[in-house]
């Protein structure tokens, strides 16, 4: 008995309804898998989902805390999406965010006597410049030496972490608090009150200024990729580098430019950390948060659409906020991380169905014809 043949074939044309149906179906599959996990671990699924949703969006202050958690994820998700759309896999948003925080805090300390609007603009520029400079390193290595940007950008995260620790713990740098307390308990210099970014309040919900900046960056990225020659060339280079070179596009310059843009966005995320939330260059706190790596998950869930990145960051930020709120003996903190992983794997599996189709065919049976002998 012959078995049917299963083939995975690339779709020549992607149907629009698949763009909506597959992600929604992937989320359903992910929630079913999460429900099974909750049952296995002794948590009633429906009650747990209700508790998570309430802790993320309904309870007093929950929506504000979810927006706070979503702000850095939106920046690192946009940084990853900008590069991934050109098939450049920037895994270095973590380190670029560190350098963005370093640049923003340095500018804020230098211009401590200036007004709040001047400091906000200076911090954003300082964070973007240092983030772009750190992102340019793997871009230059990829463009001129053909070095894999996944490896270089990932390794540079550890270099950035060591540099951040050096500035706060291992030296009397410009960023370190050199008072008696700072020498005993190493910490960064506190920023001036004027360097605190404003908060927009709607009813009982406080929206961080950084979240609004992330939404504005998402709009700029959308315009850049859909309405400009820069975005068109980036799309062509990502789809077919050979065709782009044949058309005379400067691929090396574009690679470096995209990596710089990606690093700049992550760097603005670091500036937002300083202006919105921390107000002190906190080396340990930034490294423990893992914003850059979670941003890759956000970008993948959003399928690299900038507006969807902000929405996905809001959802994952709410999930993280709920995990922190509900953390207890009967609800371990690692459970939320497992849920995020299940959602990511389901979405990536669904992406396969958008790009490819599965065809099942039965093998043709060949029968021998018996011929009568000639008389």
Q: How would you describe what is shown here?
A:
The protein is mostly helical and 375 residues long. Helix content is 69%, strand content 5%. The strands form two sheets. A two-stranded antiparallel sheet has the order 1-4. A two-stranded antiparallel ribbon has the order 2-3. A hairpin with a 2-residue loop joins β2 and β3. The longest helix has 30 residues, at 116-145. The mean pLDDT is 90.
Structural class: mainly alpha
Q: Strand sequence of the main sheet, in spatial order?
A: 1-4
Strand content: 5-15%
How many helices?
15
Largest sheet: 2 strands, antiparallel
SSE arrangement, N to C: EHHHHHHHEEHHHHHHHHE
Estimate percent helicity: 55-70%
Give me the secondary-structure topology:
Elements: E1 5-10, H1 16-40, H2 45-58, H3 62-84, H4 93-110, H5 116-145, H6 149-168, H7 180-184, E2 199-202, E3 205-208, H8 209-227, H9 229-239, H10 241-246, H11 251-278, H12 283-289, H13 291-301, H14 306-326, H15 334-355, E4 356-361
Antiparallel strand pairs: 1-4, 2-3
């Amino acid at each position: 008995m012959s078995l049917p043949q299963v083939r995975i074939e690339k779709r020549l044309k992607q149907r629009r309804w698949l763009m909506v149906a597959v992600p929604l179906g992937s989320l359903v599959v992910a929630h079913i898998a999460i429900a099974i996990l909750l049952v296995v671990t002794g948590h009633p699924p429906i009650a747990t989902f209700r508790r998570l949703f309430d802790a993320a969006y309904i309870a007093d202050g929950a929506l504000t805390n979810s927006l706070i958690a979503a702000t850095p994820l939106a920046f690192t998700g946009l940084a990853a999406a900008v590069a991934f759309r050109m098939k450049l896999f920037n895994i270095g948003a973590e380190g670029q965010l560190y350098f963005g925080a370093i640049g923003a805090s340095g500018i804020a300390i230098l211009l401590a006597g200036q007004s709040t609007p001047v400091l906000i603009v200076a911090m954003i520029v300082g964070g973007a410049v240092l983030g772009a400079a750190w992102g340019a390193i793997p871009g230059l290595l990829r463009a001129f030496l053909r070095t894999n940007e996944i490896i270089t950008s990932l390794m540079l995260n550890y270099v950035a972490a060591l540099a951040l620790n050096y500035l706060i713990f291992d030296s009397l740098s410009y960023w370190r608090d050199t008072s008696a307390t700072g020498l005993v308990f190493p910490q960064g210099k506190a920023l001036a009150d004027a360097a605190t970014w404003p908060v927009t309040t709607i009813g009982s919900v406080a929206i961080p200024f950084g979240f609004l900046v992330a939404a504005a960056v998402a709009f700029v990225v959308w315009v850049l990729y859909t309405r400009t020659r820069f975005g068109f060339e980036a799309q062509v280079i990502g789809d077919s580098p050979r065709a782009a070179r044949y058309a005379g596009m400067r691929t090396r310059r574009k690679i470096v430019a995209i990596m710089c843009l990606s690093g700049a966005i992550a760097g603005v995320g670091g500036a937002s950390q300083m202006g919105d939330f921390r107000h002190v260059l906190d080396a340990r706190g930034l490294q423990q948060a893992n914003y850059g790596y979670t941003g890759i998950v956000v970008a993948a869930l959003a399928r690299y659409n900038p507006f969807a990145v902000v929405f996905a960051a809001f959802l994952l930020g709410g999930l993280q906020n709920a995990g922190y709120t509900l953390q207890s003996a009967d609800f371990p903190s690692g459970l939320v991380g497992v849920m995020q992983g299940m959602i990511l794997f389901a979405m990536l599996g669904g992406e396969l169905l958008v790009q490819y189709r599965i065809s099942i065919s039965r093998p043709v049976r060949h029968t021998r014809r018996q011929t009568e002998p000639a008389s």
